[in-house]
Structures are given as structure tokens and as C-alpha cells.
Design goal:
By secondary structure, the protein is of the alpha+beta class. The chain has a single domain, classed as outer membrane lipoprotein receptor (LolB), chain A (Clam), CATH 2.50.20.10.
Length: 203
């Protein structure tokens, strides 16, 4: 997890905070972050912007917490994910196409891997399910086994397990859930991810 701090240094918006205080601080910060820029581009694509927060808790160690903004553009063939600080400065960019995944850091350095999940697991230091999010951000399970599916009255997924993650989806709009909560156990570590998606114009 220390690798995260290479990309998210310990500033007032991203620090180690103990226990429940970290969760509260992250929730408050998400509401006040500078919004990420929409990526845009040619052709039709699924696009979302919003805020993210990642907590990693391990017995006997301080909670590792990091948060910021994200902008997502998925054309089906290619994916681009931009990560920014709460003040709007670029942290990193992940691009995925059939040839693999590339992470570009703010200083111009790059990392490559066969897929984005492997890339972020190696570079960031904790698993983040980019491949799963291509479906979960749309409010649907991805390929593979789905456990304990719960749906609302309109048939939209509210909670399920997939790929080692437990998900809770809520605040749906026309494109998908406006709030995603993901949790998983990775050895002795408990990983929590929160994605708060910006409302669509006119809502």
C-alpha cells in the first residue's frame, strides 16, 4: 500500500487517518472536491465523472486512505480513465485497448501491463477492478459467477458479489448507479472503494 503514496502524497486531502475518522473525512471530502474534467472524444462512448475514495485497513497498522476525482470514457474497444486530485491536478491516466493497458503518470513516466487490473495492482499496490467497473458502472454484473444478487423493484442490481468483490449500488440515473461501494478481503487487508458519480445534466 505504500506504493499508493508515490502517486497520492500525504497532503491535507490524502493522509493516513485512523479508524472511523478516515471514513468520515473521506465522505466529507468527496462532497467538496473540484470536479474532474469530462474526457470527450470522437464517436459514441459511455462516460462518467465523479469522486473516488480507497481505504485499506490491516490489523495493527494505520488505515491507508486516498481520494480524488475520476473521469471515465469507454467506447467498448478502448477505455480511458483519468485520476485527479481533489484540487483538479492530474495524477495519472490509464488507457486500455486490445493490445493492453498503459498508465501515464503526471511526470511523464509510463507503466504497461496486459490489462488494467494487473497494471494498477502492480503500480498502485492494491487490487482495483477496472475490468469489472466496465459493467458495474452501467449497473450490471460482468462476465463470471455472480453471488447473492439483490435487485430493486425495477430489476436493477442493488447488491451482489463478483470477482472477489462485494458490491452495493444505489442512486441510479439513466446511465447507471450514482454510488458504488466495493469491498474485498485480500489476505489480512480489508479494501474498501467508494465511487460517487456526478449527476447527469438536467437531473
Amino acid at each position: 500500500m505504500m506504493a499508493i503514496l508515490r502517486f497520492f502524497p500525504c497532503l491535507p486531502w490524502s493522509c493516513r487517518r485512523p479508524g472511523a475518522a478516515a471514513v468520515l473525512a473521506l465522505a466529507l471530502t468527496l462532497a467538496g472536491c473540484a470536479g474532474p474534467a469530462r474526457i470527450g472524444g470522437e464517436g459514441t462512448a459511455f462516460e462518467r465523472t465523479g469522486r473516488f475514495a480507497v481505504n485499506v485497513a490491516e490489523a495493527g497498522a494505520p488505515v491507508e486512505a486516498v481520494q480524488g476525482g475520476f473521469s471515465w470514457r469507454d467506447s467498448g474497444r478502448g477505455l480511458r480513465l483519468d485520476l485527479v486530485t481533489p484540487l483538479g491536478s492530474t495524477l495519472a491516466r490509464v488507457t486500455v485497448d486490445p493490445s493492453g493497458a498503459v498508465l501515464e503518470q503526471a511526470d511523464g513516466a509510463t507503466e504497461r501491463a496486459p490489462d488494467a487490473d494487473a497494471l494498477l495492482a502492480r503500480v498502485v499496490g492494491t487490487p482495483l477492478p477496472v475490468s469489472g467497473l466496465r459493467d458495474w458502472l452501467r449497473g450490471r454484473p460482468g462476465a463470471g459467477e455472480v453471488l447473492a444478487m439483490e435487485r430493486d423493484e425495477q430489476g436493477r442490481p442493488l447488491a451482489f458479489g463478483q470477482g472477489g468483490w462485494q458490491l452495493r449500488l444505489s442512486r441510479y440515473d439513466a446511465l447507471g448507479p450514482g454510488l458504488l461501494r466495493l469491498e474485498r478481503r485480500d489476505g489480512s487487508r480489508q479494501i474498501s472503494v467508494r465511487l460517487a458519480v456526478d449527476a447527469q445534466p438536467g437531473e
